[in-house]
Amino acid sequence: MSEDVPLKDALGFALDEARMILPGVQALFGFQLIAVFNQRFEEVLDAPGRALFLAALVSIAVSCALLMAPAAYHRQVERGRVSRHLLELASRFIAWALYALMVAIAFDVYLVAQVVTGSPSVALALAALCLALCLGLWYVLPWARARALSRG
Fold it and tell me: Which residues does 121 contact at the CB level (< 8 Å), separation at least 6?
């Protein structure tokens, strides 16, 4: 059973969702920054590995920016008001942030698994598994449920 909520409440839910995801993204971003300054960083990762690490770091930064964007937009454009446009914008930003986070997690899992196991195939399999899990839980499951609800 579900019920419609007022626009103000729906926007509050969206902003709360962004606030719930953001600390995890920021923590991952912090760990990424710390890793670069570790003495073993250059030893453990070759040039392609460091490039993939940088791609993961940028992806996390993009995720962080997207999660913060709805609040920044609201403060500057719709201060003291709520609109359907803001709700849609916030929802899109959160969805895009999760895509970026999913990519970063997969890259990080690949790199760590490569270092731990020494096997590119095992690392790729684990990264693909994590990517599939995130994609399934964050996008496929909600899409399937929304589709089922829309059919009645």
Answer: none
Q: What is the pLDDT of residue 1?
A: 64
Query: Rounded to two decimals, what is the model's pTM?
Result: 0.88
Q: What are phi and psi of 5, to 5 degrees?
A: -120, 155
Residue that is written with structure tokens 């839910």 in the block: 13
Give the separation between CA 79 and CA 11, rounded to whole angstroms. 13
The whole-angstrom separation of Cα 40 and Cα 121 is 23
Give yes or no for a contact between 63 and 101, defined as CB atoms under 8 angstroms apart.
Answer: yes
Residue type, 86: L
Rounded to whole angstroms, the Cα distance separating 107 from 56 reads 6
Is the Cβ–Cβ distance between 149 and 94 less than 8 Å? no
Contact 10, 91 (CB under 8 A): no
What average pLDDT does the segment 30-50 reach?
Answer: 91
Report the C-alpha gap between 86 and 90 in whole angstroms: 6
